[in-house]
Design brief:
Strand 8 and strand 9 form a beta hairpin. It is globular, with a radius of gyration of 24 Å. Strands 11, 12, 13, 14, 17 and 18 form a 6-stranded antiparallel beta sheet that branches. Strands 1-10-9-8 form a 4-stranded mixed beta sheet, with no helix packed on it. Strands 4-5-7-6 form a 4-stranded antiparallel beta sheet, with helices on one face. The longest helix is centred in the last third of the chain and has 17 residues. Helix 18 runs antiparallel to helix 19. It has 3 domains: 123 residues, D-Maltodextrin-Binding Protein, domain 2; 190 residues, Dipeptide-binding Protein, Domain 1 (Dipeptide-binding Protein, domain 1, Alpha-Beta Complex), CATH 3.90.76.10; 229 residues, Dipeptide-binding Protein, domain 3 (Roll), CATH 3.10.105. The relative contact order is 0.16. It is α+β, with helices and mostly antiparallel strands. The chain contains 19 helices and 20 strands.
């Protein structure tokens, strides 16, 4: 019986060879489960791309790497911003002397980060030529003048006027910039802790590489792109221009592990690594085998298909523990979901029969069974789109999302006229026309198992379903263009607030994060009211009303909140991922070969 068979059977695991020693000193090797799209923040949203460019680009703020609850701290900013009492005026001051990584565009001279760079970075989201799905993060804040500038560019079919100053976004001097908003935005500051949104670029770099900015990321972060074989391998190396940045963290009083990490790393210069190597390994089995064989230093996280082998019952398997492997297990602020395209004449719409079809599909599909069989129990069935760990999550809410009932699904379909009229075994639409559901899936083993479960459950309900299989990046393109009837993946929180997940159903976000293209005025009014309120009972009540409208109209089926079971080889030390940070390589330590100087 070979090693692969042993792993699949979960037998004789102690006979596995010890993990190979780490590669070059100061190198962390990790696998991604999906190919990257590229490294220009406004243009991408896939997890692989975000993880890479978060190590290259920096936002003005970040989160303390260990504090619980999440705590904002300065990164390229000199301090937290000045915020007016009405949450409409923000002033940021950047630290002088921060440099971009070297690039031929700079002509061999150091290039300092200045306030105008942040202004340009934000304006890029408004450029119609980019069609960024993240624009809503700024438009929702109603920055004075920028949306009007975008509309004029669209109407006149002229390039976006980056040099036109607006009242809502200005560089005050070399290091200070301000934002003025039309409405209060109490949580807008968190946008500036997300390198996906405010990872700052240099204008001359973007313009010099306009033909392919995705392949030329140049930022102020701790790493720079050294090698890139598309959909295969990405290598980052330490940025020689990176400033003196010392480790500091404030873990919670009862967090023994966090306090040990903070004490060990306090005052050490970041990054602690010299090199990050990312391999694209889409299938779960080779990703698991590469870690067990020592080819990768961390498994972030264990593929759910191997959760029963690596973390049976939620604890580290003895054969891994004997090798010194460590487990870090946490429930992610994330939700795995399926959306329905409301612009599609079959699954979209707001009439009772259209709503009934979506509700019947949600009732017929068994999310708890999917967690058990497809994800090997490595998740918690979801009752709502807002995940645990985010403001607005309702821990006591019970919904139909995890109460599968084929009988109720069939009864609902019967009631609204979805019946088999021609005797072929499949239901037709109420008007007698064919009913064929289509759903997107990526091409990996887990997706195949999920699609098999969908096929089984829909067939039992008398609903015909077909699948569109394509790479993740291609499905994203089709989704943004409105060419998918339904699809599903995992959204992870970028901040500790649940507003993002409600925003997935906000009408003006259609063609951006609102994949469902759900447009319900009653929902939009509630969403807009909660958005301008500070945290408290009034806002929570509005958020709960939003959640119930999403449950009633079913633009999304929330399936599960996944566990992250991170496995670390013995030589990976003082490492813990933060729920809202993607640049964990900044703080990772492999061995102890890095000087504390």
């Amino acid at each position: 019986m070979d090693r692969r068979a042993l792993l699949q059977a979960g037998a004789a695991a102690p006979l596995l060879p010890a993990a190979r020693a780490a590669a070059a000193p100061g190198t962390l090797r990790v696998a991604f489960n999906a190919a990257e799209a590229g490294f220009d923040p406004p243009r991408v949203s896939d997890q692989s791309s975000v993880r890479v460019h978060s190590h290259i680009f920096e936002s003005p703020l970040t989160y303390d790497p260990l504090a619980q609850p999440a705590t904002l701290v300065p990164l390229t900013a000199a301090a937290l911003p000045e915020v007016s009492a009405d949450f409409r005026h923000f002033v940021f001051t950047l630290r002088p002397g921060i440099l971009f990584a070297d690039d031929p565009v700079f002509g061999g001279r150091p290039r300092e980060l200045v306030a105008a760079d942040v202004v340009y970075t934000i304006k890029r989201y408004y450029d119609p030529a980019l069609r960024s799905e993240h624009l809503y993060q700024f438009e929702n804040a109603k920055i004075l003048g920028l949306s009007e500038l975008r509309r004029r560019a669209i109407a006149s079919r002229t390039p976006f006027p980056y040099d036109t100053e607006v009242a809502g976004l200005r560089a005050l001097d070399r290091y200070r910039f301000e934002l003025r908003l039309a409405e209060p935005a109490p949580r807008f500051v968190h946008v500036f802790a997300n390198p996906q949104l405010t990872g700052t670029v240099a204008r001359e770099v973007i313009e010099a590489y306009a033909a392919d900015p995705m392949a030329h990321p140049v930022g102020t972060g701790p790493f720079r792109l050294a090698q890139w074989r598309r959909a295969s391998r990405i290598v980052l190396e330490r940025n020689p221009r990176y400033r003196e940045h010392r480790y500091a963290a404030a873990p919670a009083e009862g967090d023994a592990e966090g306090r040990a990490i903070a004490e060990r790393l306090h005052g050490r210069r970041l990054p602690l690594l010299q090199r990050l190597e990312f391999d694209i390994v889409e299938e779960a089995q080779p990703r698991w085998l590469a870690f067990v064989g020592g080819e990768h230093d961390a498994l972030l996280p264990v593929p759910p298909e191997y959760g029963h082998l690596a973390v049976p019952g939620g604890t580290l398997a003895p054969f891994l523990a004997r090798r010194g492997v460590r487990l870090q297990r946490w429930l992610q602020a994330a939700v795995t979901h399926t959306y329905f395209n409301f612009d599609d004449p079959l699954v979209g719409g707001y009439t009772p029969p259209q709503v009934a079809l979506r509700r019947a599909m949600a009732l017929a599909f068994d999310s708890a069974e999917e967690v058990r069989l497809v994800y090997q129990g490595q998740g918690e069935p979801a009752q709502q789109m807002i995940p645990p760990g985010c403001y607005g999550h309702e821990p006591d809410l019970k919904s139909e999302m995890t109460e599968a009932s084929l009988a109720r699904a069939k009864a609902l379909l019967d009631l609204h006229g979805y019946a088999d009229r021609n005797g072929d075994g499949w239901r037709e639409r109420p008007d007698g026309s064919p009913l064929v559901l289509r759903m997107g899936f990526v091409a990996n083993l887990r997706a195949r198992r999920s699609s098999e479960l969908w096929l089984k459950r829909m067939t039992q309900a008398g609903l015909r379903i077909e699948f569109e299989v394509a790479p993740f990046a291609e499905l994203i393109k089709r989704s943004l263009a409105g060419r998918l009837m339904s699809w599903g993946y995992t959204w992870s929180a970028g901040s500790p607030d649940g507003e993002f997940f409600l925003g997935l159903a906000y009408g003006p976000n259609a063609e951006q994060s609102n994949d469902a293209r759900f447009r319900l005025p009653a929902f939009d009014r509630l969403y807009e009211r909660q958005r301008v309120l500070p945290d408290g009972p009034e806002r929570l009540a509005l958020m709960q009303q939003c959640t119930r409208l999403m449950l009633a109209y079913v633009p999304y089926i929330a399936h599960q909140h996944p566990y992250a079971n991170d496995l670390l080889q013995p030589h990976v030390q003082a490492f813990r991922r933060h729920p809202f940070l993607s640049d964990w390589g900044r703080y990772a330590l492999v061995g102890d070969a890095v000087s504390s100087a």
